[in-house]
């Protein structure tokens, strides 16, 4: 039952490894918590070892090459100074930031794509209603015969068609939801498009600036944004019901 002493004895050769000459201070160990990538390592390390030597130790623990390590203790850890000089104490947390070469290779290509996506998103952040293509229609003002809107309320779809709205060319448009046929009818003066709900890939909407009780809404009819069919001045109380009906969420209840 003397295993604790055995453990102490096992550690003593490590304690004797010193870079600070033969004096006792060279053998003084400090307990560190090295944290990297959500992993925690308990490390005993000589106080008179340098930051560069600690990086080597971290390399042996994590596989992270010293050149790719950013080691933080109250700021960036200086490589040339000893842990004693930068006042590292028992229980100190050492944060390590960095990726192994494999991680970098694995992440590189998707990361570039992700950055492009972020840029595209930022470009889109300008409210839709300020974009030139939409201004053309919105600047005509609210149609006289548009259906009244009710703020702060979500209503089921009305039994009558939603009418009095504009489409992208500024023509009048009405929306009829034929639930029994699972179709959305988009009607203009010239013709009525009968679209199966399942063919509509997405529905997007955004409040119209200055008239937040009405939305502009698009039905995505093909694979890209170029296939959006825009409808302006949709009363806000019907927006959620339209999305749920077209995208099929109501079937899950």
From TrEMBL:
<dbReference type="Pfam" id="PF25343">
    <property type="entry name" value="PH_UBFD1_C"/>
</dbReference>
<feature type="compositionally biased region" description="Basic and acidic residues">
    <location>
        <begin position="1"/>
        <end position="12"/>
    </location>
</feature>
<feature type="region of interest" description="Disordered">
    <location>
        <begin position="1"/>
        <end position="25"/>
    </location>
</feature>
<dbReference type="InterPro" id="IPR039120">
    <property type="entry name" value="UBFD1"/>
</dbReference>
<dbReference type="InterPro" id="IPR000626">
    <property type="entry name" value="Ubiquitin-like_dom"/>
</dbReference>
<feature type="domain" description="Ubiquitin-like">
    <location>
        <begin position="30"/>
        <end position="97"/>
    </location>
</feature>
<dbReference type="InterPro" id="IPR019954">
    <property type="entry name" value="Ubiquitin_CS"/>
</dbReference>
<protein>
    <submittedName>
        <fullName>UBFD1 protein</fullName>
    </submittedName>
</protein>
<dbReference type="GO" id="GO:0003723">
    <property type="term" value="F:RNA binding"/>
</dbReference>
<dbReference type="GO" id="GO:0045296">
    <property type="term" value="F:cadherin binding"/>
</dbReference>
<dbReference type="InterPro" id="IPR029071">
    <property type="entry name" value="Ubiquitin-like_domsf"/>
</dbReference>
<dbReference type="Pfam" id="PF00240">
    <property type="entry name" value="ubiquitin"/>
</dbReference>
<dbReference type="InterPro" id="IPR057455">
    <property type="entry name" value="UBFD1_C"/>
</dbReference>
